[in-house]
Design goal:
The protein has 195 residues and is of the alpha/beta class. It contains nine helices and five strands; from the N terminus they run βαβααααββααβαα. The chain is 54% helix and 13% strand. A five-stranded parallel sheet has the order 2-3-1-4-5, with helices on both faces. The longest helix has 28 residues, at 73-100.
């Protein structure tokens, strides 16, 4: 079994992934795989954005890269055309490894609705929380100015609008309460994933 896990910024995707991992799920963190993919294609990214895309240590300067690509939609598309194919291959390898072990897999990805792997998912869990709760979590976690937080949330909302493509497999998990309440909301997954 493979499920997708997505949701708006600071809705609680990582908390859900942690709960599933405790229950034996193989949780695929697409953000981390994206970092690995970036390192794999860094020479091409440096051709696109210039030498500053890599630091003196030869490792990607993600802060510089983000400042460039999020300021120019055309540049972002070119960047994604370099990084996403490598990232999708890494995701596929993780799904295959879990299947070989007969372990249920969870693809944790903010961009899930834009990924080809979304079609493979038996279900997609979209974690939802109120805007006030998400803003408070974002401010506490990232310590960024409100305008920056709102801009990130605004950019991500366009991805969530793609959810209608998956309405037949889409389930919503509310996460406005405690961690115990979130655990209770996910109890059914233990039974669903049982061999």
């Amino acid at each position: 079994m493979t499920i997708g896990l997505t949701g708006a910024c600071c809705s609680g995707k990582s908390a859900v992934a942690d709960i599933l991992a405790e229950k034996g799920w193989h949780c695929i963190d697409v953000d981390k795989l994206g970092h690995q993919a970036l390192e794999q294609v860094l020479p091409a990214v440096c051709e696109l954005l210039g030498r500053r895309a890599a630091g003196a240590d030869g490792i990607a300067d993600r802060r510089f890269i983000a400042s460039q690509v999020f300021a120019a939609p055309g540049l972002l598309k070119q960047y994604e055309a370099l990084v996403h194919p490598a990232m999708f291959k890494l995701v596929d390898a993780q799904i295959a490894a879990a299947a070989k072990r007969q372990q249920p897999a969870c693809i944790n990805a903010a961009i899930l609705y834009r990924m080809p792997q979304a079609k493979q998912c038996d279900w997609i869990l979209e974690v939802q929380a109120s805007l006030a709760k998400r803003l408070a979590r974002a401010r506490k976690r990232d310590k960024l100015p409100w305008a920056t937080i709102m801009d990130r949330m605004r950019r991500q909302s366009a991805i969530l609008e793609l959810r209608d493509r998956y309405s037949g497999k889409l389930l919503f998990v509310r996460n406005n309460g405690s961690l115990d309440q979130l655990r209770e909301a996910l109890v059914w997954l233990e039974h669903a994933a049982a061999p």
